[in-house]
What we know:
The protein contains 8 helices and 7 strands. With 239 residues, the protein is of the alpha/beta class. The chain has one domain: Rossmann fold (3-Layer(aba) Sandwich), CATH 3.40.50.150. It is globular, with a radius of gyration of 17 Å. It starts with a helix and ends with a strand.
Amino acid sequence: MSEIAEKVIETHKFFNKTENYLPKNSTIILRKLIVSEMMKRVKGANIIDIGCGNGIISIPYLDYNKVTFLDFSENMIKAAKTNIPKSLKNNSNLINLNFEDYSPKIKFDIVLFLGVLAHVQNIDQCIYKISSMTKNNGICIVQITNHQKLIAKVLGFIRKLYSVSNSSYQNNITKRDSIVNHFSCYGFSLVTEKKYLSTFPGFRFISFKNQTNLLVKTYNTIISRIIGTELIIKFIKSK
């Protein structure tokens, strides 16, 4: 089996077991908070949430916008469908497909691409595709781990040591400056970026309430600015 085929299979296998990712995931709560700060009030927009998971980050925008929920995990799409209020279903479009196989018929005002670049087959091709599906003056909000930071390298090494998986599959290494340059090459300009702390080995043993408090209270502080490895970056397509 090729390395690319294994990446697709292993990624799908992991995220299709929603218990691997969704329960007590305080990181999603913080991402939702940061995205809401970056988007503020949005009305009349076509939004796509790529790698939407259970949809809780983008469901709040269904009141006044059209939202496409895209995820190649059928169980994640089922979770998103369950979470969407019946009164707002007409404003939603759920698609169970790998982003790299997706061919949208429209361009979007806002593209959410949170935590996906770590798992795609080709980062450059995906950013090009994002550009092609974003309207001029449209927004793209991206989340990555910044492996330029030494602490990100250390945490990655520790996680690998304690991994119980025998798979050779590894997440893509993403670096802040490289990702920003890639987006710039495809017509995007950086608007703003926010840092927050990475979770660490043993974090899951902390109560969900304390996890959330730790992440939210350290976000946007000198602590996160110095040692934060997780980035959410807002771009605008300028050409």
